[in-house]
Amino acid sequence: MKNKNISKKAKAILGTIACPIALIALWQLVILGEFPSARFLPSPCKVFNTFVTLFSGPTYLQHIAVSLQRVMIGFFIGALTGFLFGLLIGLSKTAEKIFAPFFHAVRQIPMIGWIPLIIMLFGMNELPRVLIIAVAAFYPVTLNTFSGVRNVPREYLELASVYGFKGLKLIRKIIIPAALPSITTGISLGLAMSWSILMVAEIFIQTAFGVGTQIQRGRDRFDIALVVAGIITVGVLGYAMTLLVQKIVQAVERGQVITTDKI
Amino acid sequence: MTKIFLKRLRLKDKLLALIVPILVLGAWQYAVTQKLCSELILIPPLTLLNTLLELAQSGDLTLNILASLKRVLIGFLLGGTSGFVIGILMALSPVLNRVFGPVIKALQQVPEFAWMPLIIMFLGIDEFAKFFFVAIGAFYPMVFNTYQGVSGVPEKYHELARVFDYKNFRYLTKVIIPSALPSIITGIRLSLGLSWMFVVGAELFGSDSGVGYLMTWGRAVFQIDLVMAGLILVGAIGFIMNIILEIAEKRFFLWREPVDGRPA
After folding, report:
1. Do A18 and B99 touch (CB under 8 A)?
2. Sequential DSSP letters for A38-89
3. In whole angstroms, what is the distance from residue A27 CA to residue A33 CA?
4. For the segment A73-89, what is each residue's pLDDT rounded down to a tens digit?
5. For the domain bounded by B53-252, which CATH number is listed?
6. ipTM attached to this prediction
7. Is A21 on the interface with B (CB under 8 A)?
8. Distance between CA B132 and CA B112 in Å, rounded?
9. B112 in contact with A at a CB cutoff of 8 Å?
10. A to B CB pairs, distance under 8 Å
11. Better-scored residue on pLDDT, B67 or A32
12. Which of A8, A142, B145, B225 could form a Cys-Cys staple with A86, CB 3.0–4.6 A?
């Protein structure tokens, strides 16, 4: 029985790694075949070597740190304002009627569309990069906070009025805990959007540091190995960030269950 | 969301909705008359309107919109169809799911725009590179939603299909796809919304036509009215595409609430 389980697991693992291995093997074969159309393609070994050289010096880590810092600042600004704005239009129907139509109209414009305009307005510096990342986080956090606040069960609000909870206490003790799952969804969506827009910000708005800049530089120098290494770095970092946020969200939600029990 | 804002608004609510736009326009006009900022950057609101009208009259508008729409359509068809097919295959065959699933999930971690430099190196900046880029954007929502829909087909339906001896094509068209349709439609809307975003991005990177080109050109010649006109066009076209899909969805799927398919 145990053996069967193990072999099942082994099969599953084999299935999972089959495709990546086949892809890398195919990649190597294409290199060995020396096809004329693939003469620019770097070999898997070369990409690996590029990684080794990149990580042997401090510069690449610096690029990564700058990118992470950029995302964090932009994300923090966007998520905080989005949370407050979502709370405002969620709590007050009048505020919703005043701000929501304009918000939805502006939201129709894809993020990329703002790039030429903000470059013209702010120039090629750090401000427009952080701004566009903040906007990317702002939309999902606002929308999810809004729907979370609006969908607080009526019974909770009734209970709160029985206890005489009002104003800030009502928001802190009832509304935010009840809306938390929706808010955390917004936050993880927002972080994913910020990370995705970071690439746009670093590739379109020229800068000296950042992983996106490295990818762009690789293209300028026709160093495909560098481009591929950059893409892999971005993917892995994005994945690590998603996992981290998931863990935090789970921890927060577990903590939240306990506190609502206390109430 | 859209329908709420279009239909359920009463007159008082409409007036309330106008407050912010009027304030913004007013502040803008005020800044122009007070010359708070360089005239190159702070153009009067009327100039923007004129630019839009001029573009429409000269025919540049339709030409560029059509160029962008063509790219969206072809890219969406490429990416959407392959996402649809792979999604179905992954949901129906555990082996294929194990083979493709992790690779697709790993590739999805890479922000789409990071592919752009690589695409340009291999495919150049001609039309095909743009189709390909749009197709990448259209692929992910389609593959995940199709997969979700097809793997959610109730076991009862499979059993019934076995009883009726439905096989292959018939099984697919009579049982699987109809049952997974709501999820597939969600995929189509998300995917079309993203396609529109990516076509603008692809055009910003280098092209000689399209709405995104209009904006890059405006930036290059420092005509901010052109850039803003492009911005309004991009938003409006995305909005109209979404409304068309919403109407189509309501007509064909009376039993369900339309999804909000706009990209954030």
Report:
1. yes
2. GTTPPPHHHHHHHHHHHHHSHHHHHHHHHHHHHHHHHHHHHHHHHHHHHHHH
3. 10
4. 999 999 999 999 999 99
5. 1.10.3720.10
6. 0.74
7. no
8. 11
9. yes
10. 160
11. B67
12. A142
